[in-house]
Amino acid sequence: MSRPAEGIPEPRHRLGLAALAGRGRETAVGGEDGPCGPDVVGGLAAAWAEAVAGTSYVSMSRSEIEQHLAGLTRQLVTALLAEPFDPTPARQVGAAMVAAHFTGTETLNRTVALLATELPARLGLFRDGCQGPVVERVAAVQGALAAGYAEALRQRTLDEQEAISQAVFVARDQTEQALRASEARFRAVFAEAAIGIGVGDMAGRILEANASLLEMMGYSLEELRQRNVRDFMHPEDAASVWRLYDELVHGQRDHFRVEKRFFRSDGEVIWTHLTVSLIRDDRGHPTYQVAMIEDVTDRHLLQERLRYQALHDPLTGLPNRALFLDRLSRAFETGGRDGRVGLCYLDLDGFKVINDSLGHDVGDQLLVAVGQRLDACVSAPGRLVARIGGDEFIILVERSGSTQDVVVIADHVLAALEAPIRVGEHELAVSASIGLVERPVHGTTPADVMRDADITLYWAKSDGKAKWALFDPERNAREVARFTLSATMPAAIERGEFYLDYQPLVRLSDGQLVGAEALVRWRHPEFGLLAPDRFIGLAEETGQIVPLGRWVLREACRQARLWQDRFGQRAPFISVNLAVRQSRDPSLVADVAKVLAETGVEPGRLQLELTESAVMGTADEPLDALRALSAMGVRIAIDDFGTGYSNLAYLRHLPVHELKIAGSFVEGLRASAADGSHVVDARIVGTLVSLAHALGLGVTAEGVETEAQARRLDDIGCDSGQGWYFARPGPPDQITRLLS
Ligand code: C2E
Ligand code: MG
Ligand code: MG
């Protein structure tokens, strides 16, 4: 502030003002009575104080103000009178006014006016015609004071602003610090989170991503920022993923959580748990989306692997039964009204032999090789080859066009297995039996199809090896009925559902009733009255014929005893059919003996009818049984003679008493046919009869339906006849009536 104030003119005249001022008074400037003496200065200060009174708010009394201004007045006077003249100290006076808060708007005005009038006047400077230089000096002092004042005021304003801004800054700094602290905490969480976090705007532009996310995805932040969320669509994303995303960006939901896979920058796929949340602004408008992405690839792969293991056969790597059943059910669910499904159920022929003879290792390798061949020859979209049991494979055709489709596959499979399979040093010939089922899914169930495939495989097996069989509902219905019958037979015997009809055996020479054949019937609660051909064969297969035959024998003998009691010697013998299986039953002889003993029927009144196959070409035991029965006095008859081996010469060695000639021979004797075939038949029967008689056997003709047949048979020499001509099989009363 000591430099000369700009724009303040240097005094044009250099004259000794101090001298001027002191003239006549002889007083030095600073002396007691000089221009700076207490009178002059005090007067000036009082006038100054008077001029500025009330223009500024200063915390001083009037006398303190005067005292303060007196100091400043002295400086001004000194500056005005100084030689050489320098107005600069007046600047300090201006600055001092500001410092003492003489800063009211009128204060400077009045001070400057006072300097122009009172200061020179009181110093007596307007005397002696030197007004010009005085005015110039006063103006310079005024200017310097005003400049110092303005400068100080400006500085003070600046200082005040600075103080305010400093205060504001400090205040702001403190809030910022708090904010920064919370932001830092947030940043740390964001940056160091193990989970990937990304922030995007509502258009899907990626704005931020933390280190975990970058590492997970294999991108730099810059690369990610150039991408859109939708770029991360995976072709196999569930449709729901992007539907949920759309709902979120349209503000219809606030978050969603899905399992989703992503492509990394290197093309690798990662599996994640993705949670996306919507961030709204103060007014609730969607502004950002935040994605939290957890890499669960390892967990997922493990699960996949476990799932794979659960659904595949470890030996062949083929789908297992569980996967097959799952796909089968799905084929049903998605098949709709017109969908069809096909199964080829395949079982290796003779696998057990290979396994048992060459060992399980060879067996295992063979299964692997078969699995490969099947897969190679069958595999196509919509088809599944599964291993569902030891040597059982199944081929599922999910959308079959027609039955022909599965037939073609079965042919391919049989052809593919024709070439031997090499396992170690073994060349193994394998074949398979295949059960085929092909049908619309509508109206059936997976369980039905599986059951029918199983049945059909069984048919294929029993038809011979290396064959396929196609499911046939009629055959199945028959078999089901047969199965039902055989399953219910034991209970039926106990419930008394069986009964016997009796058909007379008549002596041809005089028409005398000599015997009665017992023929079993089943009054079935569901199927009605069943003839023996419906259930005897079945009973033979299942073995039920043994208890059933025992019941027939006892029932027939019970009836025979009644006739025996009533008619004595005229009572008919009873003829009971024995199935092959019964004839081979070791307890046959004992059973017969027991029944005869229990019922008291004479053994000679019991005849047992056996077919030729039961007595011919068999081992010794059954013949021993027949011999034992014969020795007991029981008669043995060969039933339906002529339909089997018809080895008359062999009969010589057998304990047989009667031949029953099958109805088919008798048929030819019905009448005189135009071609003369009746003559041939008559000759055959005639030969049979004479040969039988030569062996000491009696002959009964079956199926006698007409009087002519009966007469002819009598002419030929046949002993007895049985047939509708005499009587149809009927209840025992019929026999009783005929005898009475
Ligand atoms: P089968 O022993 O040859 O019995 C004679 C069959 O010829 C009977 O049929 C009888 O009804 C029928 N028949 C009798 N006269 C005539 C005729 O003039 N013309 C024609 N066309 N048929 C006639 P059914 O009762 O149906 O018995 C069929 C077969 O069932 C029997 O043939 C027999 O082999 C077997 N069977 C019947 N009952 C038993 C039984 O208790 N045990 C065993 N193991 N088999 C039995
Ligand atoms: Mg018979
Ligand atoms: Mg017969």
UniProtKB/TrEMBL annotation:
SMART domains: EAL (SM00052), GGDEF (SM00267), PAC (SM00086), PAS (SM00091). Residues 182-252 form the PAS domain. Residues 482-740 form the EAL domain. Residues 256-308 form the PAC domain. It comes from the Bacteria. Residues 339-473 form the GGDEF domain. This is PAS domain S-box-containing protein/diguanylate cyclase (GGDEF) domain-containing protein.
